[in-house]
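Final report, results section. Input specification for complex C-07:
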Amino acid sequence: MRTEQQYLEGLRDGRVIFYRGERVSDVTTHPSLGVGAAHTAIDFRLADDPAHRDLLLALDPDTQQTISRYFLIPRTFEHLLKRRELIETVTRAAKTTVPLVKEIGTDAMFALMVVTAELGTAGEQYRERVRNFYARCRDEDLTLAVAQTDVKGDRSLRPSKQPNPDAYVRIVEERADGIIVRGAKVHTTNAVYADEMIVLPTRAMGPEDKAHAVAFAVKPNTRGIRFLAAPRGFGMSNAFDNPVSSTTRMVETLTVFDDVLVPWERVFMAGEWQTAGELAKTFVEFHRFTAVSYKTPLLELLVGMAALMADYNGIAKAAHVRDKLVQLVMYLETVRGLTKAAALECQMRAGIAVPGVVYTNAAKYYFAAHYHEMVKQVQDVAGGLVVTAPMREDWENPDTRPDMERYLGGSASATTEQRLRAINLVRDITASDLGGYLELLAIHAEGSLETQKLTILMDADLAPYRDYAKRLAGIPAG
Amino acid sequence: MRTEQQYLEGLRDGRVIFYRGERVSDVTTHPSLGVGAAHTAIDFRLADDPAHRDLLLALDPDTQQTISRYFLIPRTFEHLLKRRELIETVTRAAKTTVPLVKEIGTDAMFALMVVTAELGTAGEQYRERVRNFYARCRDEDLTLAVAQTDVKGDRSLRPSKQPNPDAYVRIVEERADGIIVRGAKVHTTNAVYADEMIVLPTRAMGPEDKAHAVAFAVKPNTRGIRFLAAPRGFGMSNAFDNPVSSTTRMVETLTVFDDVLVPWERVFMAGEWQTAGELAKTFVEFHRFTAVSYKTPLLELLVGMAALMADYNGIAKAAHVRDKLVQLVMYLETVRGLTKAAALECQMRAGIAVPGVVYTNAAKYYFAAHYHEMVKQVQDVAGGLVVTAPMREDWENPDTRPDMERYLGGSASATTEQRLRAINLVRDITASDLGGYLELLAIHAEGSLETQKLTILMDADLAPYRDYAKRLAGIPAG
Amino acid sequence: MRTEQQYLEGLRDGRVIFYRGERVSDVTTHPSLGVGAAHTAIDFRLADDPAHRDLLLALDPDTQQTISRYFLIPRTFEHLLKRRELIETVTRAAKTTVPLVKEIGTDAMFALMVVTAELGTAGEQYRERVRNFYARCRDEDLTLAVAQTDVKGDRSLRPSKQPNPDAYVRIVEERADGIIVRGAKVHTTNAVYADEMIVLPTRAMGPEDKAHAVAFAVKPNTRGIRFLAAPRGFGMSNAFDNPVSSTTRMVETLTVFDDVLVPWERVFMAGEWQTAGELAKTFVEFHRFTAVSYKTPLLELLVGMAALMADYNGIAKAAHVRDKLVQLVMYLETVRGLTKAAALECQMRAGIAVPGVVYTNAAKYYFAAHYHEMVKQVQDVAGGLVVTAPMREDWENPDTRPDMERYLGGSASATTEQRLRAINLVRDITASDLGGYLELLAIHAEGSLETQKLTILMDADLAPYRDYAKRLAGIPAG
Amino acid sequence: MRTEQQYLEGLRDGRVIFYRGERVSDVTTHPSLGVGAAHTAIDFRLADDPAHRDLLLALDPDTQQTISRYFLIPRTFEHLLKRRELIETVTRAAKTTVPLVKEIGTDAMFALMVVTAELGTAGEQYRERVRNFYARCRDEDLTLAVAQTDVKGDRSLRPSKQPNPDAYVRIVEERADGIIVRGAKVHTTNAVYADEMIVLPTRAMGPEDKAHAVAFAVKPNTRGIRFLAAPRGFGMSNAFDNPVSSTTRMVETLTVFDDVLVPWERVFMAGEWQTAGELAKTFVEFHRFTAVSYKTPLLELLVGMAALMADYNGIAKAAHVRDKLVQLVMYLETVRGLTKAAALECQMRAGIAVPGVVYTNAAKYYFAAHYHEMVKQVQDVAGGLVVTAPMREDWENPDTRPDMERYLGGSASATTEQRLRAINLVRDITASDLGGYLELLAIHAEGSLETQKLTILMDADLAPYRDYAKRLAGIPAG
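Structure output:
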């Protein structure tokens, strides 16, 4: 197992990152992006922490080696339950911001294993490459990002019909030593903090979209790759005013592939348009399971902030406040319960336990559809001071602190400072750049609300229900 | 195991039932109530059916006898999952109307086992009686009803403060041979079809409510018991117009205890007011799990009817119709998934697996809170003909049938008769006396929406979430 | 002005009505349909009642005669506000069941006036006929029904593409003395109680649908017209158990046109396919305004029943009950307020005040989208006895009445009988055949939810909002 | 009428303002607060603009002078409709951020006129002072803020029971020359930009709260007044990244009264605890009407941004996108329609038209209850780039701009820059510090959701509805 230090060292490899108009020379020491590097390193710190080691590590049945549990291939529903617990626990320790440098990459590898296996002999070569790549990542304890969402251009047009041919990443040349790819992906999370990056197709393809049916792995410092990092969501401010956004970080990039050479042993799909959709979908099923596993700490925090502010404001016994608390608890537990049901109702494919599609998507949809409403409940209990209170500079100014001390206290259960800290937490999580970022994430990360509905409708088999209705209506079957 | 015939025979025991102003002499042959007797007998028919026997029967680990699976004491989460499947399967076979002559009674017995065990030596005598009663019911394959909800009078007053002292069932005398009880219960389901009736307190009691802290079992034909059966919800009509309500039945009664003598060996609580609330609550937890298990076939039918009518009306491809279908599927699967999570997260109490409280109540609340909305979706897809179409007499009248044939057909996927039958099913389930009955049941059976919210708030431990918020805000714990 | 007696006399004209398999000889004395005739006659009773005369009658500015106010052509927003008040008041007096024998007919005539006027000289002949027909109806104080919704067959196909060519009413022959029409309309309300019936197209037509672009007026006893009356929604029962459904009635028919001759002076459109959609839409705008005007008494009753049951159950001070009451009040007032806004923001077309389209449809949509939810609130407050209480026969049976008296009472604010009557009212309105009928009506009468959304999207002009966004974003206009 | 320059000049009067730890010497030139001064001055710019002058100015019937229309006392529903239009129009011109330096102050003065008039002779002295103060403000064209919300301390305790006696502003001494007041108000909007500040009680008071029943007017530079300005919601950034928040501003303050002397002629209530609640409520009714009038431009912008992004992303024809657009339009028009209904149904009190309470509160509640959901719809249509796109510095960097140009474009209807600008606007309004500020404002400004519900329940007269239910149930009245 690698140490935190080894991991961070590995990120200093010349990768090309731009941030707010400037080239970033070292992502681990950059004043803003460095926060994220320290943050994602939590995986390595926890694996080293006796309190968490048993959960973070696992015995690999294939190699009989101790490995990072993220790499453990799920073969039973209990494995999926444990993976859920792993992701939830790490994210909770990471102040609700999932590190996402091992979760998503293993999601992609499991999906590649399933899909290449289901291809039969046609997929044998790819399967072999996936297995080798997986074994190396597992054994070297690497971190991985995934780049899936294409920039898409005009969303009403298919890949091959786009005015800009590179609106979906594509193979521009096949050579003896590999393929040359061109295009760009958006919303790539934490690739700047990963040792490897897996690239997957974003949707089903038709025969004319062949060049866009491409999957592979690359190192982030490969020639031709450029990352344009988004500055949104996390502030540098200070821990008093922004207790979470000042100390954690997630970074999305516009990830540009400027005629990048990918050697054949790293290519997992190259033109098999018939399988592009299945690969995209299978990855997404693993990844939405990851998503609903990492959302719960944030929802626990929503519950906790509402409960805390109810106490501090002296309104914990008001009927409407109790009602809001119970709505928040049900929200949290509905997401968590459906995630467990998704594990329980997994489907075995190629010997791998794939989370139940309907439950996974129902959990994800439920989370996403109600997130804004639940934010509202927290803000409602917290009160208007969340945006009208003075901030740290005033708290530290002897001319103004006495007024704040005197007039911004609440019930006897907290000091004024504690109440202000709680208020600042609510603002940081729900009513700030980070708050807006989390709202967008809720409805767009891991696919939009519409996508989840479509997935459920495709996957749910309505025929038995229709037949049941026929039977009860006295209509012959068929 | 008893046969259907033996079961029905047992109901002809002189029990005192009134229905629509008249005394019912034989509940099995009564033109209206007889439908229900035949319906509840489905438990015995399925136990005898090779296709269902394995699910309906089980090997009792205590006696090594084959028993009705309802009586199998749940000792693992798998037992609860299987019990869920049992209740769902039987209710599906019963056209969505749960028979409820074994489910609820075993819920009550499991709760009595848990609560009397947790009382320690103080409960030893009661525990013994419960065990004996349970063993007899199991071995003789009896059916059981439960009477819990008191009439309550003015709901803003506690039992002992009611102007009518009998607004909650109470002990009016303790004698050497047993207790004399007086009062009445409402909403008692299917007691008229049961061999035994268990009576439980409906709420927590204070010391001054001692006389109301009473639990016992009686035979329905015990002197002093009168049943006033409600006529709502199920019509006698015909299978064309009312395919479900004409062939199934559930009956609620006002169950009057007019100074009924209950021998001591049938008394399970008599004055232990401190335990009344716990018993009521524990029963309800088992019973809400039963409830969310038996709701799913009705929700499957909602999905099925919407899908069928979408086809028959030629609107299956409309985006808004697809959206309604997916909402219905998510509704079904959210209830089902949370029920499975409740089994998975059971709590062991006195060696018995009690379904997880938060998940059970979240499932029940979700079901209840959205039922009307989902009925709306089905009605929306089905169309206005649900209430404006002529009915069977017109369909059979040669003067009018040709007009109906000619003008009431839909898409090519169905004949006019099939479409009318499907429409009639939608009306029967959603827009009729039965439809109204189901709406009320959704929000009142097994406790109101408010009760489920209160239960969740009592059971959920908010402290860890509050502490989590404190930690992230930089507030010291405690 | 005609008297109630004259009106009823006029309905005995040999019209061909079938009901539950039998030909109805006299609609005014028929045991079931006669209830509706007495009910719709309320328009004539109120016009004769000093308490209501000022509202029911109006001075016609054109003729300087006193006319039924329904016929008053709206020329200002105050006229529309008064028309709203008229419809609300009559429906309130009619126990929430709108009589609908003058409202809808005048809606149709106003729409015909507007659309034929906007046709210019092309519509002159039609306009003349409409005016003459209107003048006669007004002067003779006639009642009118409207038949608009075609049977539609496969809804995914246009009129001219239907396998059944008569799935939309059509002209099968043009003759010197008139047109011959064939087909059928569904959901025709109260035509069996009307002196005249106006027939309108149900949708926009294309050139190939020319034969279906037809509008006209006929007397219900015209040769070739048959009514198949739906029996749903209203029970004959008794006033104790069914206080509303036993004494009021609305009747929908399948209205068959079996090669009916319509003389030219009664034809208002015959082949002008370009105008069919505009006529359908304009009628619907008037009629949705009527709809949202007549819904409010039902919503007032929902508020009233919830408030009453809260008192009778002793729960009026519970926070969740108060919350439900305020939700119900807001629901009522949002519908009423938007209706007033629709009047205020009317559009003048051909000198006639047409209710504002967006507000009318927003009111209608809001009503329809939330009706089921509001029914749930009422049922929630009322309690399970709504479907589990014994009924009138038991109340009148001396063997059972004492038990009901003793055990079915609530708080001190009501006798047991009063509580039972209130409970029965809740069941009759929300959990019975009538309850189901009202739910279907809510979402399908006057167009489905989808239709209202489409209408709003067509009518709302988004360009100014888009330009506003551009301006604030710093994007040049255009 | 004053000019913009005269107005700004008036703000340089030595008022004590702190902002982010520093004393502000000149609010009109301060780098951050100065933006707000320029912003609120829009009232004076528009009054001078021929395109808006007719709306901004009015002829005062009392003085026959031209006055700022804000000061026009509403005496008919048309006046209220015009006032609504005034506030909407100015706020639209002000990029959705209401200036609020004349709206709220006139709300307070109208309320003071009504309440002091209703006090009869007891209020004569106060009425006189209010009239004089009003006349001066009107004639000198002054700007006014209102400080109402007390800091409240432990919200479960009444004013006189607070551990901190100053948790509600109070009179600490009555002197010959006036009263001395102590305490603080929170959420005071734009007092730093006003010529005068009116202070009102925040709630109903009991006899023991007498000292807290106080209302008066003060100049912001009065000795003893300190403003601690909140820095939230508006960023200084640049017009590309933050098109709205960088150019508009609203400022809330903690407003401290450190033993401030208020001369008697400026005191409008001093100890009349019986009237405190009525004054608070009446002010709020005027002010919620103002609120729902100024919300609509923001809602127009939500519609506009969604429509624009739908075009730019090439998804304008997707059914779910159209559905979101229509939901947004209905949201906007429901708020606007109910506001118009509130004007139409005004109540005359002391000769002044007070907006209808139920409609005003229903509009406000509807706005507040659904704001987060509507933000979600806009974000859903806009897409994840709202938070993952690079920003202005990258756009201006020649190393990265070509990638952005190439890969961040959408449909042919916009250039990449236009799409980025539109995306930035969406982020600025919905997913930034300003976005969070607007969410909090939606649910807390002008009273919380609970308050609006309580107001409706207090104001709505349920008796007629209850009687209606009784009548239909056959229960005698009374």
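The mean pLDDT of chain C is 96. The two ends of chain C are 58 Å apart (CA to CA). This concludes the modelling results for the funded period.
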